[in-house]
Backbone:
């Protein structure tokens, strides 16, 4: 009788899911991206793929306050525990509005406690060895939640609670070093803060950053944020400069940053903040990771910590991509091989630039990063997209459903394919062939900027930019009083050469529902057609055409990235001067896509940007609402009019109120 090899023991993979977490819903909208259907579609996908019978399936238990208190303040815990109770019914929405991107309802408390409890439970089972690995399909997500604040759809920081529980409460399990990998497209600001001085936790986050202009905004996601005290070197941020990064970009980071540091750190366990909003087609993320890309990233992480991996769901808002990507990760944990195309993919040139910056910053703490990258990686470059929509807008323009124009078609700029042996040697990745070098790209960009810096125009503002400190945010970068997110600024930081005021025969009005910059409430628009019965106050800034381009892209939630061509060029300037308005096809989804010429001043054209005539009809029909502004936005409008010596405070308030109470 022939000897037969014993069959390999299948891995013990845990899955935890509880439909009670679907009780957390937005009371004001059926279209919020953080919807209960996120976890339902994942569960349905796993069921249809025959995954459930191959895993250890569990239901969630609510976390205990004493465990949540390992990372959160008592005041915050008390709020989340009680906010769904009847006594909060009349003020729950008001409480939610005080936080950044948070909704609350009668099911929020239970869902938050179940999510945290689920992540604790499966993490403990993996640490005990009862499971080889696990996936917690939970919501609300957690990585943005800070010790005393909910934000970014997150109530409790599920991953941080579980990691601290293992380290502090269960030392006998032998988990003394934990690697947290956060591949959500947004920076895990909450998790970073909770472990910033703790050398027991190596926190790694790869995310869109864009100089602090992408949510959650600010400098916390910079590669220079490396930890402090004993935790110095144990905080690693890989901040993308733009959207549309895909498989190849992430593979390059895994090979040249994460893998060598993980090997040196030698963690006892890996916890993944599994956000899937960097997946192809996600409406908030704008990146292009395929399900295969997530499978490769997961497989690489399984090489460490003896494969003890626990993944907790964070973001991910394209339901199809989300379900397929989570399925790919679970299949990888089950040691299935994921099908792959055999075409090549290449990282962006900016990816190598970021990788080099990260390695240089961290090399004093991790000598494995001190070596030079192979020269052949930089032979040619794949240029970044010319412009991109950013989901954390620094402008007034932000649509009501937080929509993002990311789609599979857009991601074709960096279409994803992979070489079949990518796992064996990720370092073989090269950058895309292109007829133009980086120097030529920069030169082309510098060429139009050099020319446009010598062309002056008047930019006429009727909204928050009437207040000079707010307008200067578009030039110098940063944020003014009342704003909830910073601006990227112009490449030309010079202040306006001259400022003046003018009254024009156009209707000023305030509409739309909410913006990320100003919160709930409308923002200012100008009817693009003149009306002798209307008067609007305009603050005119003499700036360069280069600066006008940079204001235009920021007002429309766009941002130039190594832009070879301007959005508004000299032929557009000539056209709008003759025809009075110009609707840009590139900006068609923006709220301020219509450049209008209001005449001339000192032989220079007066340009403003507002909505299209089509939008005017939607405002008239009520499909787009006229709406009162937020207090912060209204205060800025009043400051602009009063400090500009155009109106008294009482007159300014009356002028603003007329903008949303009088029908178009």
Residues:
């Amino acid at each position: 009788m022939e000897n037969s090899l014993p069959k390999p023991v299948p891995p013990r993979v845990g899955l935890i899911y509880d439909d009670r977490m679907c009780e957390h819903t937005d009371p004001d909208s059926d279209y919020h991206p953080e919807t209960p259907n996120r976890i339902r579609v994942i569960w349905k996908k796993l069921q249809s793929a025959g995954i459930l019978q191959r895993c250890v399936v569990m239901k969630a238990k609510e976390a205990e306050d004493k465990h949540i208190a390992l990372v959160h303040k008592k005041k915050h815990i008390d709020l989340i525990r009680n906010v769904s109770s009847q006594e909060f019914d009349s003020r729950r929405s008001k409480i939610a509005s005080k936080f950044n991107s948070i909704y609350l309802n009668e099911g929020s408390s239970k869902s938050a406690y179940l999510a945290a409890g689920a992540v604790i439970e499966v993490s403990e089972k993996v640490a005990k060895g009862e499971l080889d690995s696990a996936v917690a399909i939970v919501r609300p997500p957690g990585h943005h939640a800070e010790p005393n604040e909910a934000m970014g759809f997150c109530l409790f920081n599920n991953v941080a609670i579980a990691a601290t529980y293992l380290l502090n409460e269960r030392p006998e399990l032998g988990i003394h070093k934990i690697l947290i990998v956060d591949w959500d497209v947004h920076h895990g600001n909450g998790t970073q803060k909770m472990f910033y001085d703790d050398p027991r936790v190596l926190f790694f986050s790869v995310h869109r950053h864009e100089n602090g202009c992408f949510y959650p905004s600010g400098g916390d996601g910079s590669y220079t944020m490396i930890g402090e005290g004993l935790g110095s070197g144990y905080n690693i941020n890989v901040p993308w400069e733009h959207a549309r990064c895909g498989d190849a970009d992430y593979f390059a980071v895994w090979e040249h940053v994460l893998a060598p540091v993980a090997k040196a750190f030698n963690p006892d366990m890996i916890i993944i903040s599994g956000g899937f909003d960097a997946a192809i087609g996600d409406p908030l993320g704008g990146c292009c990771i395929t399900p295969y890309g997530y499978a490769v990233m997961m497989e690489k992480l399984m090489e460490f910590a003896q494969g003890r991996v626990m993944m907790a769901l964070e973001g991910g808002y394209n339901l199809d991509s989300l379900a397929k990507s989570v399925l790919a990760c679970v299949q990888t944990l089950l040691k299935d091989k994921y099908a792959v195309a055999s075409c090549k993919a290449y990282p962006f040139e900016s990816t190598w630039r970021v990788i080099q910056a990260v390695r240089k910053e961290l090399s004093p703490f991790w000598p494995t990063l001190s070596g030079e990258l192979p020269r052949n990686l930089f032979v040619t470059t794949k240029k970044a997209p010319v412009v991109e929509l950013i989901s954390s807008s620094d402008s007034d323009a932000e649509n009501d459903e937080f929509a993002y124009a990311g789609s599979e078609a857009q991601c074709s700029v960096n279409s994803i394919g992979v070489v079949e042996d990518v796992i064996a040697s990720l370092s073989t990745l090269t950058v895309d062939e292109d007829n133009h070098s980086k120097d030529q790209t920069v030169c082309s960009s510098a060429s139009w900027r050099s020319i446009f810096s010598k062309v002056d125009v008047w930019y006429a503002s009727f909204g928050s930019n009437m207040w000079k400190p707010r307008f200067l945010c578009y030039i110098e970068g940063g944020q003014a009083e009342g704003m909830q997110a910073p601006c990227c600024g112009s490449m030309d930081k010079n202040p306006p050469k001259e400022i003046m005021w003018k009254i024009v025969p156009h209707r000023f009005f305030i509409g739309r529902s909410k913006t990320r910059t100003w919160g709930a409430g409308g923002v200012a628009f100008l009817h693009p057609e003149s009306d002798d019965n209307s008067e609007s106050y305009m603050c005119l800034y003499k700036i360069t055409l280069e600066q006008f381009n940079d204001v235009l892209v920021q007002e429309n939630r766009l941002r130039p990235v190594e832009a070879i061509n301007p959005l508004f060029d000299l032929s557009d300037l000539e056209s709008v001067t003759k025809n009075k308005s110009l609707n840009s096809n590139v900006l068609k989804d923006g709220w301020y896509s219509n450049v209008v010429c209001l005449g001339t001043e000192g032989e220079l054209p007066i340009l403003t940007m507002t909505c299209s005539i089509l939008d005017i009809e939607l405002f008239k029909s009520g499909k787009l609402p006229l709406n009162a502004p937020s207090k912060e936005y209204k205060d800025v409008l009043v400051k602009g009019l009063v400090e500009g010596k155009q109106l008294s405070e009482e007159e300014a308030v009356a002028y603003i109120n007329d903008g949303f109470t009088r029908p178009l």
